[in-house]
C-alpha cells in the first residue's frame, strides 16, 4: 500500500522542545513554516472524529497533554457531519501567531491526511485504540515526520554533506520533546525496540519497529479483529525514506568522524588528544614519545604562547609523525572571551630545594637536583628531579665526577652542597643528577664550585631561575577586590582600613554585567564567593568557599559568573589574528565559549572570507548558553561544508551549570551529537591524578571507560603525561572479549544433577 501525504496541520507550543538543551530554545528558533518547496502540500479539510493517542509533551520542563490525531477525507473532500468541527488550513494559520508561536500552549494537534485508493475506505480510522502499542509507535513516527517538514526551510540551508545528519537531529528532537517513558517500557518488555539507543537513526528504527509489530499482528488471527480499530494488518508499513537506513546513518557518522579527526590504525576506535605547550619545544623527545604511546591528535591552546612557539611545536609534530609513519592531526583552540585574573607582580627569582622528611623532621630522601648546561632543555623523560638548575660554565660541568661535592652559598648566606650521583649525556653536552640533604634556596647568580686537594677549581653560575609564582591565599570570610586597572598595586588595599586581597581583570565585560548578590567562582570552581558591591572600576567579593587552610589564587585563573548575562563578542580581535595562523598551520580550530547562533554565524563568515572550506571546526561547549543552544548551533554550523565536532569542556561547564548536573549534561550532549552524527571530544580532568602524581584514582579509570562512547578523549599536560597516554590507550582499546576469556569457566560436575 502506497501512502501519499496530502497535508499536515500543526497547532503547537513551540516551547515544548524542552528538557535539557531543548527547553530553553527561543520560540522563533525552530520555525513552523507553511509547507512548501519539495514537500508537497495540498490544502484539504480534515475530519477529526476522536483523538487516537495522547502523549505528554515537555514544556519548560513540565509535562502537558498532547494529542496526535490521524484522519482520512471523505469522497467529496468535505468533513462528515457531527462530532467536532473541521480543521482547515485557514484555522491552522489563524491559530499560529505572526511570530510562529502558538496561541494555545496546552496541546499539539497533528492532522495527518492520507489517501490509499481502494485499500482504505473513508470510514477507516488510521489510529484507533489509544492503548494499542502499534498505534502509539505510529503516532510517534508521524510526529517525527511532521517535525522534519516543519523545519524544511532550515534543512534546505544545510550543506549537502550534512543534510541527512541534520534531518536525523530534527527527528531526535521531535522524539525528545515527547514523554514516551511508558512506550519505552512497553517496547522493552517484549524485546522489540530500545528507544534509548536509536539516536543515530531515529526514523529507520521507528519504521523497523512498526514493521515488526505489523508482522506480529499478521501472524496472530485474533489480532485481525482489531483492523476496525484503525490498523490494517495486511499491508506493510513502508514510509521510511530510502536514505534514512541504519547502515547509511552509521556510515555517515563514521565518515564525519574520520573527516574531522583522521583515520585510526590498528583497529582502534577512539582518538587520544594531548595538550602541549612550551615543554614540547624544550624537549627533543616528548612529541615522539607521545606518538609512540598512542597520541593521534595534538592540541595547542592559543591562550598561551605565541606564533613562534606554535610554529616550532607543529614543525616537530609533523617531523615526528612522518618519521614514525604515524598520522596525527593538530587542533588549535582560540582563546575566546574567557574571563581571567590578571598577572600578579612577579616574585623573587629564587628556587627552594627541599629533601623529603618524616614526621620527626629527619631526612628520609635527599632532594634530587638536575644540573645541565644553559639551553640544554629539560632532563630525560625517565628522570623526575625535584629541582632543575641550569649552569653557565661548560668547563665546570665537564670536569665534574661522580661523588663530587658541589658547594655553594644559598640566598640566606648558608653553606650548602650537592653530591653528584649520576651522569647523563644531553643535547648540549652532559648533565648530572645530584642529591641535596638540606633545605636550600638557590637564586640566579649563585656560584657553584668543587674543593679538591689543590683548592677550588672552576666556577659555574646558576642562571635562569624562574620567578616565584605569586598568589593570594583566600579563606572563607575573606574580602577580595577585583580591579579593572592592572596598574594598581595588587597586594595593597586602596583603603588601609579594609583588610582585603586584590587581583585584577582587564575585561570590561565583567564590570559591566555583574551586580551585588551574584555568585562568582575562581580557578574552575576551587574558590566561590558572592559579589557584595560594584563600581565602574572595582568589584568587592566576599569569599564563601575555599580550602580549610585557604586556597591559592594566582595569575591567569578563570573567573565564572554563572547567573549573569554577560554579552561576549563571539570572536575577539586576538581570535581573528590567531585564526589566520591556524588556517595555514592546523587541521582543526577550537571555538571557545560559544553561547548562541550568532557566534556560529560570525565564525562561518570569517571562514568563508578566508576560503577555509576544509578546516575542521570544534565547538567547545563550556557555558550554560552553549549547552542550551547546542542543537540550533549544530544546524547553523551544518550550513558549511567544514568537518564539524563538539568538545565537552567539563571544567567551565560544571561551574556554569552546577556540579550536580554535569553527568546529565554530558549525557545529553553525547545524545544530541550522536543524533547529528557529530564526533565528540571528551575533555577536562581526564586521568588528572595520574597525569600529575603518577597514580590514578578508581573514579578516573571508570570515567575513561565511559569516555569510550566519545570519538576522542583529551588529556592535559603534566609530569606523567607519557604514562597517562599509555594507560588511556590500554583502557580505550581493551577488548571485552579478552576480559571474558580471563574469567574461569564454571564447570559443573555431573553428580550435581
Automatic annotation (TrEMBL):
- Its domain of life reads Eukaryota
Give GO terms: molecular function aspect only. ATP binding; kinase activity; magnesium ion binding; potassium ion binding; pyruvate kinase activity
**Ranges for domain Pyruvate kinase barrel:** 268-354, 472-716
SUPFAM superfamilies registered for this protein in UniProt: Phosphoenolpyruvate/pyruvate domain (SSF51621), PK beta-barrel domain-like (SSF50800)
Report the protein name in the record: pyruvate kinase
**Which InterPro entries does UniProt cross-reference here?**
Pyr_Knase, Pyrv/PenolPyrv_kinase-like_dom, Pyrv_kinase-like_dom_sf, Pyrv_Knase-like_insert_dom_sf, Pyrv_Knase_brl, Pyrv_Knase_insert_dom_sf
EC number(s) on file: 2.7.1.40
This chain's source organism reads Davidia involucrata
Q: Pathway, according to UniProt?
A: Carbohydrate degradation; glycolysis; pyruvate from D-glyceraldehyde 3-phosphate: step 5/5
Give, as one word, the top-level EC class. transferase
Give the protein family: Belongs to the pyruvate kinase family.
Keywords in alphabetical order: ATP-binding, Glycolysis, Kinase, Magnesium, Metal-binding, Nucleotide-binding, Pyruvate, Transferase
Q: Which cofactor does it need?
A: K(+)
